[in-house]
Design brief:
about 160 residues, alpha+beta, Glutaredoxin, about 20% strand
């Protein structure tokens, strides 16, 4: 019985992941429209900055918590200087809170997601939903490597 439940859960997770990837690939442009800014309020930056968001709902499963934990580890291991300097930011956002609901539309989210964003001031220059996070979550070293390589690609 446990195996059947586990297989059903894996199938549902696979369907959600594939659906999210299909939505992401079908988007004409990965930039978010300027009518819905995703930048925090504050002074506009003259240098591009990178933000790694972890978007989640109010109810969180163990896998969702693991994704957040592994991502935190990946950032702390390789990007302490960038986090301290502010050229890289790490933000955990509950999309079910009223002020954050726009992120679901902004990034076409279908589930909890890691999203890398390069922005300049309030303008989003590009973004990427890190779809492989869900498939690598059971392999901590590969998950951390995936996140680190993705972030490094945005910082270069």
């Amino acid at each position: 019985m446990r195996t059947r439940i586990r297989m059903t859960m894996l199938a549902v997770l696979a369907i959600v992941t594939v659906a999210g990837l299909a939505l992401w690939l079908s988007a004409e442009n990965s930039a978010v429209s300027s009518s819905e800014p995703v930048a925090d309020k504050g002074a506009a930056s003259t240098e591009p900055e990178v933000v790694l968001y972890y978007f989640h709902g109010t109810r969180r499963c163990n896998t969702c918590r693991t994704i957040e934990s592994y991502t935190q580890q990946a950032l702390e291991k390789n990007f302490d200087d960038q986090l301290e300097a502010g050229t890289l930011q790490w933000k955990v956002i509950n999309t079910e809170e009223p002020d954050n609901e726009h992120f679901v539309t902004d990034f076409e989210l279908v589930s909890s997601s890691l999203v890398l964003v390069e922005r300049k001031g309030e303008d989003v220059l590009r973004h990427e939903v890190l779809q492989e996070a869900w498939t690598l979550v059971r392999d901590e070293p590969r998950f951390i490597e995936y996140v680190q390589k993705s972030v490094q690609g945005y910082l270069e």
